[in-house]
Structure formats: structure tokens, C-alpha cells
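tool=predict chain=A
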Amino acid sequence: MAKVERYLVYGASGVQGGAVARLLTGQGKQVRTVTRNAETAIALQEQGIEAVVGDFSDLDALAQAHAGVDRVFLNIPVDFELPRVRQHFRHAVDAASKAGIELLVVNTSVFVPEQSTASEAIEIKRELTAYVKESGVPFIVVQPIVYMENLLIPGILNNGVLAYPVPADKPIAWISAEDAAKYHVYALNHPELAGSTLQAPGPEALTGSQLAERFSQALGQSIAFYSLPVDSFEAAIGAMLGEQTASGLGGLYRWLGDHTASLPQPEKREQLADRGIQLTTLPEWLQKGSQQPHRE
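tool=predict ok
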């Protein structure tokens, strides 16, 4: 009988890790995760996902989570308390190294250019990638560009206006979390690619104005695009996420706005060409979301 591989998926109760966990369980893989909440652990177990109660600071829980695991998907939550973030990813990578796992797939959640930047959101992921490379653990880095789910932040679409801090006239290859998970699972299933970095752009690059056109098409109403000043974006999300996180995300969008031309485009997906990976366009994603039950 063939061995059933066991995967550790960080963040399986969230949007990005949850999408990866669902794809893996759908392939018949054994999936384990780490969660801080015992009630969440029970809910995950009901979905067929083994859950260890603990967090990135709990070394014993991380050791337990890695026991018997073959491959790991590492996803770090959005956090701009940088000393804490460094501790968390170092603990996770060290646990993977001690467990002797055969492959670690790292989700940067954002494009990380070769040159250094002034964006904390990008540079902390550069530190993560460097630490993984130094660990000696076989790895694949996957770099999504910008998530479509960001467009669902409350207040972004309001009174027929889509207001977001990206240029109106420069294309970005937005990707859904579900499609990014296809890249991640592809990487998890191809350990022969160890040592490489996969760019993960979406199926089409859209300007801000084209975003509004796609929203209009999907929602059946006229939507206009407004290139929201980053300072205004920071002020708006600061009340929800805190000033530190708002400032960190603001720095990311300033960099994106100044360097949109350097972002990977859909035609750069040659690494996955003819691999059977079907990506979802923005109108398809919006239509799919509108057919789902509303969830608080």
C-alpha cells in the first residue's frame, strides 16, 4: 500500500491556509495544523484536519505538530510587530529542520523583488526567505502578487465607487486565495523543484480602471474606480487593524504604486504552463462569491 503523506498547513483556519488545506484533503492527504483556539481545533477536526493547540511561540506544540510530517506549508499572518514575527518564523523553520521534513513551501503573500525596499511588509518576507535558505531545509518559495480578497475590505466598494490604493492606469495580476493555493499545492507536490521560487500572478493583469469594469460586469451595475491616496487608505484601515498594521500596509502600497511595472505578469507563469492549473478571472471570482451564503 502506498504511503499517505502527511502535511502540516499553518493557518488552516484562515483564508490562505484554509484554501491549501481544502485542496490537500481533497487529494486524500492527511493534513495537520496548529491553532491557538481549542474550539477552532474541534471545528477543524470535524473537517478532517488534525489540529494541535498552540501557536508559533509554543515550541512544544510546534514539535508535536511536526512529528511524522512529510511536508510543510508555512504561512505567516499579517503582523507588523517585527520582533514577534521574526521569533515566529524562526521557531517554525527550526521545528521543521529538527523534524527533518522533506519539503517546506513558504508563502510570502506578496511579491519580493531582488532589490531591497523601504517596505516592512516586503522586507520581513525577505528575512523569512533568507532564514529558510540558511536552515538547510529543502524549500520552495511561492510569491503571490496581490490578493483579490483585499478588494472585499469593508468600505473599498461603496456607493458605486471602487476605491483602492493602486494606480488607475497600471496593470496588476491579482490572484484569488483559492488560486494561490493551487500554486502552493503544486509546489508541495513537486519536491524536485526544491530551491526554487515560483511567482504566482493571477490569470490577467488589470489596471484600476479595468478592475472597475470587471466589477461592473460581474455585479450588473456601473462601478467607477478611484485611486485612493495611500494616506487615506492608512487612515481608513487604522481604526480596524491598528496604526502599526495600517502603516505597514501603507508602505507596501506605496512601493506597489511606484514599482507596478516590475511586478510579475500572467505571461510569467511558464513554470506552471501545461500543468493543468486553471486560474479564476476576477469576474468569475466575483460571481462565485455572490452565489455563496453570507457569512459574518
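The first strand starts at residue 6 and ends at 9. The mean pLDDT is 91.
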